[in-house]
Amino acid sequence: MTRGDEAMANYECLDCLASRRQFLRGGLLGLGGLGVGAAIPGVFGRASFGLALEGALGKAASHPERILVVVELSGGNDGLDTVIPYGDDNYHRVRPTLGQNARGVLRIDDRYGLHPSLAGLKTLWDDGLVAAVHGCGYPNPDRSHFSSMEYWHTAKPHQVETRGWIGRLADAAWPDGAPNTIVNVALQQSKAVQAERHAPVVFSNPEEFVRAGDAQQAGAYEQLIQVDATGNEALDFLARISRDAQRTSRQVREVIRDYQTPVAYGSTPLAVDLRKVAALIEGGFPTRVYYVSLGGFDTHAGQVAGRFYLLTGLGEALRAFHEDLRRMGRRGDVLTMMWSEFGRRVEENASQGTDHGTAGPMFLMGEAVKPGFAGQHPSLTDLDENGDLQMTVDFRRVYATAIQEWLGYQDSRALFAGEYPGLGLVKTPQGAASSL
Amino acid sequence: VRDYRKMLGQFAMLRQHANGKLRDLLIGIAQDPAMLVYLDNHQNVKGHPNENFAREIFELFSLGVGNYTETDIQEAARAFTGWTLDPGLMWYVDRPDLHDDGIKTVLGRSGNFDGEDLVDVILEQQATARFVGAKLYRFFVREQLDDELAAKIAAALRQHDYEIAPFLEQIFLSRDFYSTASTGTQIKSPVHLLVSTYRKLGLTEMPTTPDLAALTGGLGQRLFQPPNVKGWDGGRTWINPSTLFQRQNVARYVLFPEEIPVIKDAHLQGSRRLSGDYVHDQFMAWAEQGNYTSFPTGGDMGSMGRGGMDETARLNAEDFNLFRGVFNGVSRAYQRVPPEPRVVADFRLAATLEQEGVTSAQGAVDALLRRFVLLPIDAARRGELVRFFTAQHGSDTIDWDRETLETELRELLHLILSLPEYQLA
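YS: structure for the whole thing
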């Protein structure tokens, strides 16, 4: 028996498996209908294909139908320079030098346009794949990166909370703590994915996601982590994570190393990370939530040049990722949610930049979203006591949209310790009765 | 808390009171500048109470969730009014003019309380002894407590009148402290992991490489920079597949410092953090061409004559100035920090084992396990370790003259420090 066959034997949903395998081959080779067991040339070697499947099929409960990809824009993205209210005279008054005119923006309607560098995102918009939620924030906004980021990570603003919102979601929705449920592509784990029952997979460079030591030593190590359950819960946990880590490390490195796609992602940091996500999705990882981050949004000075490059890279990365998902036939299975810890001040500063502000737009992307704008754009004249935008949508409602309507976990009330209903932005909400 | 001096001050305050009276510790934290800033008590003034600190002293430092009401918090906040900072936000000052002198009712007691009175009210509560006692017990002894044990611990803490040192002494002399249920059940924090490794190696001086701050920070514990006012959550939250590898690799870097990855041109890399990836990469590309000073080109410079350059040229010029500024600033900052002498861990496993009278592979494995691992390792895995060392060494009898012996022993020790058991204390 090959590894893949072994994994198959442990898998409950055999139909899904068969179709997934055929699909993988069809996707990879451009041909459907190859018999099971046929040689698999090309992209995956036999071994890595088996490993990829092993990863996919570890647990029936982690049937990876609906995937959430969270994109964090770190540093405070200038919302008014992302979804640009170019049709509002007040906008040109508060942004005399940074403002974009009607010819500059990528026009969406008479009032709003996207930043001129977001051509990639505009392509997705024109394909009906994007919902933009105006004015997302939380009450009593904090203008410190650290605090605000923490609030968005925990989804419990102004409270002490040790787990992240994705961690709490995973603990509640997938309490078996199956390996690889959460993947965080980053050098260091985000607080958003901190869980109790789950140990998120965290890596940036997959080749460094490995235990150091030569092959002989690694061979011995494999034996040393084979520990029978002892009843010492901490030890049993560590032994289990040790074994999961070995397997995941091998799978992650192989799947990403071997990944080939005709889609040109480019080399911007987000594109590089989303390509890894695409590789894992196509490699059949049972991951339900992927978490990636892009920095560089803290534009206090000279932001025209900085945002020109940053947003070009951002838009192109998102476009390439969705093109790749379409190629593999998974664009309907993936919802991408994008946010930043705050928007920037309404008025530009004297250095052609903007300082820390409050509310900003959030984006949902994928075939599943009801495209277009949602929510109310904050007024540019009716500002808070600091002269900042007043949020119109609590960001937890957008999270709830992803949690309830997309992933189908209904009790977001318990996750947030409060009532934050979803926004109805998913075309085919996952019913409460469906399995997760 | 941005000002490191406040964190140093807090550290000194915690050390001063850690083994003293809980009352002094609670008052100390309530008057601690880092805490005052972090939880906004410097803005908690008569007429405009700020509840932030009152809530956390109840929830995190004394009573625990569920043992107070929202009204208790509001009233307690009034008691802490006037405990604030000097105008430079550096030192604690008591400002009676900002203190609310009215009657407050907290946890069933009423009076014109100030902060000290409030701490006394807190200490009267059974919940405080229970919460603080259990917290200490979990930290020093074990995670799992039943109600009966928790009640005993609380009684002991009250009996010692909230004097922490004698309370801990009683715990450390208790049978439970040495029981199986309390042994090897706690996951070491990153700092614990590294420092205890050094101790077990018999070091008397702290190595400077690998870098303690960078390693433990990478593992999730940046000293003096806790994630929030509650501190590190610890336990299983330290562990994911990636941090587990890093923990094992940290052990390897201690044993084989020559393998520590070196960041090429670290002082240039610093500009990445300050300027973002794109700007950094562009600058590095220019810097590589030796193009530090000349004005960048690109775009239609000819249009400059007609009242401005074209957009591309303008962006390039702006970028260039920004890059150069960042580059110069970062380089200068690095130059001002004096290099730390490189000190690697100084130990000889071979000498230690020889001194202990070890003669065989089996003996070496047993001696290292005894010294480094608290929990028993089963015979099969001990056998695997012996096999590994014997294969490396070429014999199961130790040849003390063999040139590669120290390396072989260190490879063996790296395996031992990679055991799941090694993460436990």
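YS: worth flagging: Chain B touches chain A through 55 residues (CB under 8 Å).
IM: good catch. Also The longest strand of chain B covers residues 83-85.
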